[in-house]
Amino acid sequence: MRTLNKAGRGVAAAVAIAFLIASLAAVAAEEFPTRNVRLIVNVAAGGLTDTLARLVAKGLNTKWEQPVIVENLVGANSTIAAAAVIRSKPDGYTLMATADAPFTSLPHLVRNLNYKLADFTPIGPICQAVPVLAVKASLHVKTLPELIALAKSKPGVLNYGSQGIGTFGHLGTEDLKRRTGIDMVHIPYRGGAPAIEGLLRGDVSVLIINSSNIAPYERTGQVTVIAALGKHRSSFRPDLATAIEQGIPGYSVSTWFGIFGPAELPADVTKKIRSGLGAALESDRAVDYFKNNSCERMQATPEQFKELIAEDAKHWGEIIGTLGLKLE
After folding, report:
1. Quick one: pLDDT at residue 168?
2. In this model, does residue 37 exceed pLDDT 60?
3. Closest by CA position to 223, among listed 232, 233, 213
4. Adjacent-strand bridge partners of 129
């Protein structure tokens, strides 16, 4: 009977240990989750990102029968929330819900940002909002070409609002200015609600905003929505022509929301989280929310999600570079 020498026994032991570790990892992935999951949000409670995070958390809770706790870690250009995820163990128990900006525009805007996409595992998108271009009704324009003509006749006279410097409303309008040669003055606000108030008061005349946020004021006749800003007409506003259809080739504005984990998240755990996310977004609760808030469900493979992030980062990076914007 053959016996193993000392070296052989060492190799056998190493193989056995490796097999045991792999087996334990597989069991852990199969059983995940067995305790509370943290879902970190990089903005304050009450906004669209936070609401979507809570919608996802509710769906995951139902699917997994484990508490999914939303935690708002706000400030410092999302670096506080990002750091909490990066420092966490890559086991699926700490995740982040965010809009696209921390991975698309902020890396180009913020000097010495303390995180990068490689520090995360992109798990999947939640949905995309449907931005539109709205103007104060007293401006008496009904189409995008009419707005462009008015702005060109009064260079530097019209003001436009945004949700803040570096937001899709700011960068999207600057892109519009660049493409059409118009000159409007930027008035940044701290969020969408204050920007809408500025539009209603007449402090600004033009605003890029999510369709559902401005819809109540369109119904009362206080504002006029003149263009959809997606690449195609929205199913929520099939009557509203896009900016591309109105004569600005290639011009679109998007903002989306997604779920991320720390880097090196095991593939099996990532797959289980994606499955749970899919179930959460197919629930009646989610479908109703999307319909009532002008959000469109997004479905993408992990590779497609990474491609989306890269494409949008390039798009916003080019605009930010042209404008010479930098935030400390």
Report:
1. 92
2. yes
3. 213
4. 295
Nearest to 108 by CA among 326, 328, 297, 287: 326
How far is the C-alpha of 251 from the C-alpha of 241, rounded, in Å?
13
Q: Which two tokens stand for residue 268?
A: 């099996």
pLDDT digits (tens, 9 = 90+) for 257-278: 999 999 999 999 999 999 999 9
Coil, strand or helix: which one is 123?
Answer: strand
Closest by alpha carbon to 123, among 4, 260, 262, 293? Answer: 260
pLDDT confidence of 11, banded at 50, 70, 90? Answer: low
Q: Which domains does the chain have, with CATH numbers?
A: 32-128+255-323 (3.40.190.150), 131-228 (3.40.190.10)
Residue 22 pLDDT > 50, yes or no? no
135-141 mean pLDDT:
97
Alpha-helix runs per DSSP H in the chain: 6-31, 48-64, 79-86, 101-104, 106-109, 144-153, 168-180, 192-201, 211-219, 267-281, 284-292, 302-323
d(CA 178, CA 194): 25
Task: Give the Cα separation of 133 and 253 in Å (integer).
Answer: 10
**Predicted TM-score of the model (pTM):** 0.81
Question: What span, in angstroms and rounded, lies between the C-alpha atoms of 81 and 72?
Answer: 8
